[in-house]
Amino acid sequence: MKFFFTTLSLSILLMLLSCGNNKNVHIEGIDGPYILLSDQTLIMTMTFKDSTQKSVTTYKLPQFQNAYVEIGPSNNGELSISYKFDILELIEFDDGKLPLINLPDERAIPGMVGGSLPGIDFAINNFEYSSLYLSANHLGLFIPVTNFEKFYSITSFDYFINNKKAGSITMVGKEADQHIPGILLMLDFDQDVKDDLLTYLSSK
User: Fold this and answer.
1) What local confidence, expressed as pLDDT, does residue 19 receive?
2) Is residue 19, in this structure, part of any structural domain at all?
3) In-domain check, residue 161
4) Strand spans (E) along 18-176
5) Any idea which of 55-69, 77-91, 169-183 has the lowest mean pLDDT?
6) pLDDT at 125
7) Residue 30 burial by CB count (10 A; 0-12/13-18/19+): exposed, middle or buried?
8) In 3D, which of 104, 102, 107 has the Cα closest to residue 145?
9) I want to staple 152 with a disulfide (CB 3.0 to 4.6 A). Which of 4, 114, 181, 189 is the partner?
10) Which residues 6+ apart lie within 8 Å of 192 measured at CB?
11) How many domains is the chain built from?
12) Contact yes or no for 66/58 (Cβ under 8 A)
């Protein structure tokens, strides 16, 4: 695969190269993504600093009883998107109910054998061509990001939660006109992670 950095602005390139010491990469114009636990809910949230939002809209994710996407304003009025999952439903979910899918534009999922995972594609306001991935060992989200059109590569970094490696975050650029740029957050979701979440739930 060819990597083209000539059209990537210097400021973005420096930010991509400045991560380390168990710190997550900083993406220009985006705050997050962050993973939070609140009662029985796992939340992934991120804020787009260059966009504004006034109202709150909630979408129920298909195939799940208690999984939602909420789009609304941050404390500063910026566009914020939050994915909310019932922890126990995630742990007990039968991924055999889901078809194998790739990235929304049919490119292979980086780092996955065969390039696909069980998942669902869905479209929501401002975020068409979104995807959720859930397998025995992975929980992932693809969030389309329009301004990644100037980024012509697929570049992955380790993703950390509380200074511990918890998966990967990939900036997916446009390698061809038909490609959909965005962020792919892929979390480890093996039995050790599930046991930790069950321990967390038992403390509530």
Assistant:
1) 52
2) yes
3) yes
4) 30-38, 41-52, 57-60, 67-73, 78-86, 100-101, 117-124, 127-134, 138-144, 154-161, 164-172
5) 169-183
6) 79
7) middle
8) 104
9) 4
10) none
11) 1
12) no
